[in-house]
């Protein structure tokens, strides 16, 4: 009889704990539906993708959802055991379970069956699939940010690049903000450096960036002015707009600067030199979403040594 009473008592405690856990998760889901981010991190088992995953975990806020995505092809005889799909899935599930509630993470592992990683990724995040009446997708929600590692390209290529072909193509074809992790993004207060101008694309990119910035972070907005093309009136308009924006929504440690390009120096080199001398953790630009990025965007992606966030929208 005592054993039966104890078993019933333990069962009731377990049920109460489950109900409490469900209530907490429901609260989390309600809050996460009101402005939280959906961070999609692409992994492949490499050390660089591990750095991208850790950066995503450092970037997430309390109710942000983290999705780990892997388009795999299973080759038991050619892959290390740690790179096999089941091993990777178990690894990330254990790590996520130990750090965040189960309702705030998901794993999307897709057998690409001879297709390329690029094509699978583009199909999974196709914006049309998330629209009402769309065919739907295997992702639980539409990504707000896509995070991927910085992979060196293998073998000679027609166009020199310091990032892998998947990240390289994603920057051209994905209509989402993309972060290329070149070094670990810290968990504590971070420093962001964003190159801005007076375009609407830049202004929307600033709004996208503010979804990641925390109150204790440092934010510096810089307008790199071409001496021949930038008029005093244009500088005044840009300074006035971003100064007001920083006062309204920026963190306490924020500032706006104008840097004039030195004579006989290209805009790209001016930006790269400035980033190299800064202590920023993340460099941010807001390029137009086109299949052929400008030469300036290409040069910055290839040459800037720190993590880059491309606020495409």
What is the CATH T-level topology of the largest domain?
Rossmann fold
What separation lies between the terminal Cα atoms?
A: 66 Å
SSE-based structural type: alpha/beta
**Secondary-structure element order, as H and E?**
HEHEHEHEHEEHEHEHEHE
Which whole number gives the mean pLDDT?
A: 82
Please count the beta strands (DSSP E, at least 2 residues each). Answer: 10
The top level CATH class name of the largest domain: Alpha Beta
- Largest sheet features: 10 strands, mixed
The residue fraction in helices comes out at 25-40%
Describe this structure in words.
This is UspA domain-containing protein. Pfam families: Usp. InterPro entries: UspA (IPR006016). With 313 residues, the chain is α/β, with parallel strands linked by helices. The protein has two domains: 146 residues, Rossmann fold; 120 residues, 3-Layer(aba) Sandwich (Rossmann fold). The protein has nine helices and ten strands. Strands 3-2-1-4-5-10-9-6-7-8 form a ten-stranded mixed beta sheet, with helices on both faces. The longest helix is centred in the first third of the chain and has 31 residues. The relative contact order is 0.11.
Quick take:
This protein has 313 residues and is an alpha/beta fold.
Task: List the defining traits of the structure above.
313 residues, alpha/beta, Rossmann fold, 2 domains, 10-stranded mixed beta sheet, 39% helix, globular, UspA, UspA domain-containing protein
